[in-house]
Each structure stands twice: as structure tokens, then as C-alpha cells.
Amino acid sequence: MGKFKESDSCTSTAMSPKITGELLRLLRQAMKNCKYVSEPIQAYVIPSGDAHQSEYIAPCDCRREYICGFNGSAGTAIVTEQHAAMWTDGRYFLQASQQMDNNWTLMKMGLKETPSQEDWLISVLPENSKVGVDPWIIAADQWKNMSKALTSAGHSLVAVQDNLIDAVWVDRPERPSTQLRTLGLEYTGISWQDKITALRAKMTERKITWFVATALDEIAWLFNLRGADIEYNPVFFAYAIVGMNTIRLFVDLKRLSDPTLREHLQLDSPSKPDLSIRTFPYESVYTELQAICAALGPKDKVWICDKASCALTQVIPKAHRTPIPYTPLCLTKAVKNTTEIQGMKMAHIKDAVALCELFAWLEKEIPKGNVTEISAADKAEEFRSQQKDFVGLSFPTISSVGPNGAIIHYRPLPETNRTLSINEVYLIDSGAQYVDGTTDVTRTVHFGTPSAFVKECFTYVLKGHIAVSAAVFPNGTKGHLLDSFARAALWDSGLDYLHGTGHGVGCFLNVHEGPCGISYKTFADEPLEAGMIVSDEPGYYEDGSFGIRIENVVLVIPAKPKYNYRNRGSLTFEPLTLVPIQVKMMDTELLTEKERDWVNEYHRMCREVVGAELERQGRKDALEWLIRETQPIV
Amino acid sequence: MGKFKESDSCTSTAMSPKITGELLRLLRQAMKNCKYVSEPIQAYVIPSGDAHQSEYIAPCDCRREYICGFNGSAGTAIVTEQHAAMWTDGRYFLQASQQMDNNWTLMKMGLKETPSQEDWLISVLPENSKVGVDPWIIAADQWKNMSKALTSAGHSLVAVQDNLIDAVWVDRPERPSTQLRTLGLEYTGISWQDKITALRAKMTERKITWFVATALDEIAWLFNLRGADIEYNPVFFAYAIVGMNTIRLFVDLKRLSDPTLREHLQLDSPSKPDLSIRTFPYESVYTELQAICAALGPKDKVWICDKASCALTQVIPKAHRTPIPYTPLCLTKAVKNTTEIQGMKMAHIKDAVALCELFAWLEKEIPKGNVTEISAADKAEEFRSQQKDFVGLSFPTISSVGPNGAIIHYRPLPETNRTLSINEVYLIDSGAQYVDGTTDVTRTVHFGTPSAFVKECFTYVLKGHIAVSAAVFPNGTKGHLLDSFARAALWDSGLDYLHGTGHGVGCFLNVHEGPCGISYKTFADEPLEAGMIVSDEPGYYEDGSFGIRIENVVLVIPAKPKYNYRNRGSLTFEPLTLVPIQVKMMDTELLTEKERDWVNEYHRMCREVVGAELERQGRKDALEWLIRETQPIV
Predict the structure, then answer these.
(1) Of B482, B485, B492, Cβ closest to residue A472
(2) Do A512 and A530 meet the contact criterion of CB atoms below 8 Å apart?
(3) What is the ipTM of this complex?
(4) What is the pLDDT of residues B505-540, one digit of tens each?
(5) Which CATH architecture group holds A181-334?
(6) Assigned CATH for B20-159
(7) Backbone angles phi, psi at B250, to 5 degrees
(8) Which residue of B has its CA nearest to A524?
(9) Among B408, B496, B541, which would you mutate to test the A interface (most chain A Cβ atoms within 10 Å of its Cβ)?
(10) How do residues B147-159 score in pLDDT, each as one tens digit?
């Protein structure tokens, strides 16, 4: 699933507008209430995120949705005494206009006539206004930009410590506090103690004395723990602060009663004093960081990600703050160790078994006319759930027929649900969380006879997929330099797709993770390294007609080409995803010999590896399907 | 010629160190002399550039060379009361160490242990020091960075208006003031008056009231004038300030006596008052800009390039200053009009005639053993100079045999000069200025039998050259997205080259110009547009053995692929350079059918177009050579 696609983890999409008049009245009261603000504020900004800048958020954090009704993944609401406006991008213009009532003005981002949030505020606010925002859910760099623009126009941006949406939110869901799962060395390959030691070594190297971890997946990875606080993402709400001799973990303390967990974290009998974890309530991170900062020596430096919340970032005095685009945890986590790679491979084999079953089942059921986008997605989940160590899906399944396939961020809803048939293209982009790994795969298939144009487009997309997957490139190459390889065949025919080509994938963690990726847009990506795992997912979308995407998760591995210029070494990719790519969709005439060889070798691997597992599991129909679908092409 | 390569326009390379003891003593005196500085300064920074941030500079601006002896294209010298240090990059470590005496410390940039200029200054300066620099030769953004670092350490960066090198420079050359050449519509396609009108339209669109032009090629282009103040670059020292009703040109007034020039600029009888040019002495730009800024209205905005000098930039009050990475002149100049394209085509045909003659001549002369890198370069210049409207070379010829070819920025010197033979690879990268256009072409040839390895590498480079030249891509694509196409074949075999793939080329202007290019390094490039002209020059360099580069200048043209996704339109390239690529160097087995077709079609064009011109000029030997070298391959 592409990083460009939506991540709706809030309530299900409703298409009738939310009635917001009374809510806005209450919010505007709160904006003047001295219980919350020392002086009245003239505007209140409601961003999308949570305090950890998560891509997916928990229901209790869906504040922007609560106040305006719009539940897309991206959008910022701003309420003034007179106005209420919500900014979102082109993917959501229709949905937002349907979900918001006429108290709200939809601000269509990307259109020339749409003002920026800052410009709009400056145009509507009385002189010398105060604009409030919850400093926990705005990132430090966003705060800086907005504050600068407002200040230069005579206004000011002020931090409102109590969230004003929470103040007016009746029956706001509780912050989730699901059971924590410990992961042993057989899954992680390295103990949390060794991860701490490696982190400290990096801190020493850069003369850093403290590290503040705020990203939920980094904290889960660091302690070899998983939770289920956010749908699709096996993370839990927490902060961590690591010093050279101390480790502080901030988490709902009720979660720490489980003996296995206490043992895992050595809470009762730490082996060494500097590996002893002190636990604190989740909410006390602020005061604890304040206390740490009050005691900093003149040369002490604190690492914090520049995407961390403004609230936490500003606790650290500027002279001691070292903001970084990617934390050392993010960088280390991205390079999977051999145990993690083994786990990811196992997860992908199980996932392939489930998909082989799905496709074999679909072939039989579709002619009966009873399979819909939703039921097919449910069936995929059912097959996956039968596999060992299945935990849940890794993102909402994109299951789309015909024209729905051209909507890149499509997710089937009762009112859009189409029936699969032998006349239309079917695209399914789905993935799961297993205890040993995370999957994400897209296949585009036809159960009847695809048109010549569909086959032509599919083949260009396939050529792009292969061009990336088979690319050999020097060590140190950044992923964005490979993006054009995925497009060359489409470009040659005047076609393209308007999304990136790949994203990093976590290991039983978030399906989207930094710092690597393959996109024409990102130049802040870190170089690819052996052990990194990314997706390779070019596509083509014909509006109103069909969508095509071919996605494998691939592992960066060393390559051994003929020469080795300046001893730099080379890299290439190995597919982890092992699901046949439908030959019926290919115009094999358009493939070069090398590309045909790639397809045949890929299918040979699918047959060999997944076939053995299907056989072991005694899944005969799926095995038969696999064997038929992996016949060599000529 | 790649933008990465050197541009030595200073004195010829001397390899014995310059004696600098007395010079440094005088400079240190000047650093305390109240004639120049109100308070003594503890350090003085001497950058490489001139007041226009030119890539090539005039002898009078070679101040860093004068003070330390090192004459490479890149380097910054800093002199304190106790120390003298010079920073340069890996291309120049050897040369700099040979050219500087032991008063100087060579600071090897790119090595881990080498401090930045700021860190070094902070480590050697007494508390509260003043660091001086000539604000005219430091760009505004460089000033900002250095000033920030010094201030945070308790020092300050101060502008020293009189250049202290000039103060101690005996017999400093005069600033050149060569005769100006006017270009009529038959060369420019558009009058300077229409260029001014178009500029003002862009200013109106962006609500800009003044534009300050500081780049010499932009000023030459704007007024349809050329000079010869800087070797290889047909520019002249000038500034221009354009308002909505006024045009100010700052130039040595002695240059304006020529009646043709006065007529061209309509100095004596302007057609309209707002197209009347007011001329001022070159030096008065500062006071004149001050006067303009003193009279600015509250909403007036002034455009200036962010690469302009600190001195001029800071004249404009911050509230009125709108710095831009590329000026509207730079952007318009890059898109050549039909007249300019026609001129560039003509220039390239003439240039090809000269090169065909050169190669035919070399074939005959080399076996005699008398041709050297220098004499071959001279011969190339001689043949070029016989062509109509030849003005001079567009950069110093890179003429290199065997191992010298692996030195990317090589330029033959008496002490390195090798003899051409039938046993070694010969690389020649050369170009010329004609009144109708600028050329830049690299060919790599063998006059005997190239080894299998040389042929293999050459063929990979050729594949890369073709991949870029034949690429089809959507409108709006930035050049850096094409860079990997040039490398894919080399990468596949573990090879690469450590420079960019292409640079913009001016039309009878600088051989390197922005804002477009093809490089993995630049993400600030502007999208390619039909009419832009860039080089396509991948290479491969085997240290100590040989260098390969294949360079054509190519024109961006509309492409007409089968489909037209979202009506975006597509682009591709048309080669302007029409010089055969040596078939003997190719391993044709490694070429695909498409690549063979490209080579044959390219050679057919060379034969047809250049053949006709060779015939017209009666150059029989060269024609014979051309016909032989353009036989189709199978």
C-alpha cells in the first residue's frame, strides 16, 4: 500500500453531514473560558495528528473529525469567532463536502485561489489576535512556520495546554491501553538491552547525553514490545527517555502488572544498574523531561526528532536541543537483522498461501455472481487469519472492481460496493500483521478476458516493477534515484501514475516506515542499505475504467556484478512477496527476454517456496491454482 | 563539458610554490590599517568569486590565487594574524600543495578530520574577534551562514568595503572593458525592448516593482549584447536595475561611444520613455540602488537572486527584498526561441565540420608520432576558427590520452602533455563560441585496436547516453529524474561515474547555465521544457588507465507517444551535436536492437546534415572520413 494512500483509522465513513452548530458554540465558549486560556483566543487550530505524529490514529485522537465531521486522513480545521474552515487535499474534496455541514467552509488545498491557513487567519482575524493550538499535536517545525507568519502580521500563536476539543467532547473514547505483547529473541534477533547499548554508543559518538523517543513504532521496536492501541499498527502509547545511565519509560502503569512483561523488562531485578528501566505514567513525560533539562550540564545535548510535538521539543532549551530528521532508532530499525528477515520471509510465505487460496476461491465463486469487493476483502482476511501467528490486517484492504480501481485510496463501502465479475479488472491491495512480520501486496487480475489496452497498460506497469526489482545500483544510492526506472516504460507510451513507487515496511510494525522509500518526491530519504525492506508498487489508473498496481515487498541485498568500481559494492532487491503475477494480464510480446526470464524465475520461486507450504498445509485447490499460474511464459 | 569540471580562467598552472611571506605581512598590516577598517580585524576571508558570482573569472578577480598561489577553480583562503589556510576539494589536493608555500596550511575538504572554515576560525581566534570579508564577492546566503556561526561563538563577521587583496596587489590587472558586440534579431529572435516588456509582465504578475540583475550572462542576454571580458564567456561587467518605467544599466561608460551600440540601445532617441535606458558607471550601482530603496513605497518589492553579492542584497531593506533562486531572466533565457534554436543548430553543424576535419587529420598524423594532447587541441581550435562567425573557445579544451583521460578535469600542460598513439584511448572534450551559438562535445576514440574492456565500458557509457537522449518523459519532469537512466547500464556491471550527467548550455553565452540540468545532486533544478538545451555526457574513468565520455548537446522537444495521460504532454531530446560516435569502440553485441537503431539513425543524420555542409565547404578528406564512420551497424 502506497504511503500516498489514505489511512482512515477513525470511525467508518459517513456520507451525511455532521450537525456541528452546537459543538462550535461550545468550542467558542471554551476559547474564552479562563479555565483553559489565560486570555481569550480568537482562533483555534485543530490538526489531524496525535501526540506522536502517528500516521494512523486512535479514536480518542480523531479530534478534527469530531469537530467537523470529515474523517479523511489529512485535514486541518480552524475555528474563529465568526468562521469555521477545514483544509484538505484533492483526494478528499468530495468526501469532505459531503461530511461537513454549512457551518464549515471547505478549503481546497492545491487550488490557486485557496489561501494558506496562515494567510486566511491573517485575513479574517482582528488586529493583535491570539491563535491557540494544542502544542502536543502540532509538530515543532509546523509550529515554527505558523508562529512566524502570524507574528509578522501582528498576531501570536499560543499553546493551549488543555485540548479544547476534548473539553467539549461528550463521551470521548478513552485512550486505548491494550495488553502488551513481549517479543523474544526468536522474533527480534536482538534484546532490548543490546538495542539500548547500541543507541548509547551512537549517542557517545555524537556527544549526545539524552535521547527522547516519541514515535510509537520506535518505542515498540526499542523495547521488543507490541500493543494494539492503534488499529493496524501494533504499537502502544508511550514515551521513552534514554540517558547514558538511565532509561525512563512512560506508559499507562496499569499495563505493567503482567509478570511476563515485568520479567521481559527486568522491572524487578535489572541485571545492571544502567539497564534498569524506571517506569512513569504516560502523562508525566513533560514534567520528567523538564526535570532532566533543569539539571543539564553546559555541554549536554538532547536528541529529539524534528517531527516530535512542539510541547516536548520546547521543553528542551534551544542551546541543548539537537533536532534530527531521523532518529538513530528509526535508522537502525529500518535495517532488518537476519532474524527479522527470516521472520519477514515466513510471514510472506503464509501471506502468499492465503492469497493463493483467495484467488483459487474467487475463480470458482465469481461466476456465481455473489462476490463483492467487501466479501472478497473479508474472505482474504479469513484466509489470512488461518495462518500461524496472524495478528490482524496491516491496513484496510483496498478491494476494487473496474472504475473503483482507478480511485487510488479506494476502500469499499456499502454504498460503493461492486460485484466482481468476469468482465472487469479486479485490484486487491492488502496485508497483514503476523508476529514474525508485516506484509503488503497488490495484485491486479482479470477473471475473464482483459482488453488489449488493459494488457498493454498492465505490461508497462510490470516492466516498471521489474526494472526496480532487478535494478543493480551502488551502495549509498538513495531510493528516489530508482523511481524513474519504474516509470520509463509507461512514459515511453505517454502514461504515468501520480504516486510514489515504494515505502519502507516495518517488521511486525507499521506498514509504512521511514527513512527509506522510492519516490520522485522525497529527497530527504536515507540511502538504501542491505537489510532494508521497501515496497515496489508502480501502477496505472484509467479514470472511470480500471486501476492497475503490481506490488511486492522487496528486501535490499548485496549484488555481485562483474566489476566493483572503487570498492563501493552494489545492491539489488530480492522479492519477499511470493504471489504469482497473472500471466493472462500480460502482453508477453512487449516483454524483453530479460523481463520474461525475470517473470519465469519469480514464478519458479513462488511455486517452489509457496508450493511446498501449500502442500504442507494440505491446501490442494490453492496448490493446483499456484501450479497453473506459474507456468513459464515464452 | 560537465559543470563538475574546473574552470581555470586565471593564469596558467604553475607547479612551483608561490613565495607569499611578504604578501602576507602586507595583508596583515592592511587588516589593522584604519584606512581600510575602522577597527582591526583578526581574520580576513578571501573567496574565489567575483562580484557577479561568475563561474569563470577575469584575471583582476583572481585574488585567492594572488594571495596563496593556488589557481584551481574552487578554494577559499583565510588569513589570521598567526595563520594562513586554504580550503579546496579532492580534485585539487595535489595541485594546491604544489602551488602554495609553507606559510599556508592546505585544508582538505571532504576529509573527516578537516574542520569547516567556521569551526577552524572559532578554534584559532582570540575571544570577540572580527572576521572581515569583501561583501561584493561573498554571496548573501554564504554571508548569512558564516555570520551565524561566528556570532554564536562570540565573534562577528564584518564587511570590509575596500578589498584588502587589491590593496596589497602590485600591478593588479585592470578590470577588462572589451568592445561590446550588438546582436540583431537574426540572432536573438527578440529585441531587448520586448525582453524588458516580458520581464515587466512577470514583475506585475508577482507584484514586484524592481528587479536587480547581477549575473553577467543574464545582462548580456537581456540587452542582446556580448562582450569578451571573461575568457570563454562572451559577457561584460555590468549591472542592471529594471523598474516598471525605468531601465538603469551600469557599465564602464567608455564602452558606450560606439554609434552602432548607441543606436542598438537607443541611447540617443528612445522610442518610448519607459524603454529609455539610463546609463551609469559600473561602480555606481550601490549608491543608485540605495537611492531607489530610499524611495520605496511600503508595498514595493525588489527581486534579487539569492546568489547575488551580500553587498548589493543588503542594500535592499529586508521587508522589501524578495530573493529568488532563479531570476525570471534565467528562466526565460533557458528556453530558446526558434531563432536561437536555428542558430544553435547552425553552430553545431559548423562545429561538427571542424571535428570531422580534426579526426580525419588525426588518423593521418598520429602514426607519425608527432601529435600531442596540446597540438591536437590547437588543431581543433584551428579547424573551428575557419568556420563562419567563430568567436573563440567556450572552455579550455580537455584533450587527454590514456591515463590522463581518467582525470575528469584534466587540461593538458607542457609537463603532462602526452603523445597520441594507436595504443591508447583519446578523449577530447571541446567547444566553441560562434555568433549564432555555443557548442560543447566530447568524443572518445581509439586509433588502433581498443581492448575488450575498453569497448565494454564504452558501450555501457553509450547505452547510458542513448537512454537519456531517447528518453520520453512527461512535461514538468525535472532533469534530475533522468540521471539514473544514464547510469543503469554501468550500474548493472558494478560501474559508475562520479559526476552529473548534463548541464544547461547558453546560446552564444556561457557553456554552463541554469536552471536545468541532469544530475543526481541537484534537486533545485527547474523542470525541463521544450526549447531548453542541455548536455548529455555520461562517462567512465578507470584510474591510471583511460577515461571515456560521450557528450552531445541536446534540445528538449515535444514527443508524441501513443497516449497522452491527463493531457500532460510528453518531451524528449533531439541531438544538436552531429559528430559520429566511433563504432570501433562499441561492442555491438551488447547493444539492443533499439540502441542499434538509435546509433544508425544518429549517424544517418550526421552524414546527411554534416555531409552536405562538408561538401559545400569542399572538405573532401573529412567527408570521406564522415561517410566511413557513419556506416550502419548490424
Answers:
(1) B492
(2) no
(3) 0.93
(4) 999 999 999 899 999 986 678 999 999 999 999 999
(5) 3-Layer(aba) Sandwich (3.40)
(6) 3.40.350.10
(7) -110, 115
(8) B523
(9) B496
(10) 999 998 899 999 9
